[in-house]
Design a protein that fits this description.
Elements lengths: L2 H34 L4 E6 L6 E7 L5 E10 L2 E4 L3 H8 L7 E2 L7 E2 L4 E7 L8 H10 E9 L5 E6 L4 H4 L1
Antiparallel strand pairs: 1-2, 2-7, 3-4, 3-6, 3-8, 5-7, 8-9
């Protein structure tokens, strides 16, 4: 083997290693960019006396969420999507009808989205005891969504808390 052959083989090995590093860095950068614009939907509850109270949907991520599906269950029975028709069926069962925001027409939730899905105002512990029980112990809401930039499927869930766990 002469010196020219050794130099050529070394050059090919170095070029191959550089290509592998470049591909690896490009994948890492793409993954980082997907995470940096990922939406993070959360379903939370709040019951401050004298203020607006209920179930809140918020996007605390850095990108918009593309809502692809939703479901609403009451006492373990699947009722349908979290749309106006289904939510109205549920609200009609309560003695005090809460305000509602549904996801029927809302496909994209912007980065700083923060809305009550079901709420009463002003909240009173005695007057809205049934509403509190409904949200905390009977209602299940699931929202499936995608990131606009990554195509990944995510899910936000509000689960009913058993009365034993609440104590």
């Amino acid at each position: 083997m002469n010196a020219n052959t050794v130099i050529a083989v070394c050059a090919v090995v170095i070029a191959g290693a550089a290509l592998l590093v470049s591909v690896s860095e490009a994948r890492a950068t793409r993954k980082h960019n997907q995470y940096s614009v990922r939406p993070i939907l959360k379903l939370t509850t709040t019951f401050p006396v004298g203020k607006k109270a209920g179930l809140i949907l918020s996007n605390s991520g850095l990108g918009p969420a593309d809502v692809t599906a939703s479901s609403l269950s009451l006492d373990g029975e699947e009722l349908g999507a979290f749309d106006e028709r289904t939510v109205n069926k549920v609200r009609d069962r309560l003695s005090v009808r809460p305000s509602a925001f549904t996801l029927g027409e809302q496909n994209f939730l912007k980065t700083d989205f923060d809305r009550f899905l079901l709420s009463v105002e002003p909240y009173d512990r005695e007057q809205h005891k049934e509403f509190h029980d409904f949200i905390r112990h009977r209602l299940r809401v699931e929202i499936w969504y995608d990131s606009l930039y990554g195509g990944e499927q995510f899910r936000a869930v509000h689960l009913p808390v058993s009365r034993d766990q609440a104590r």
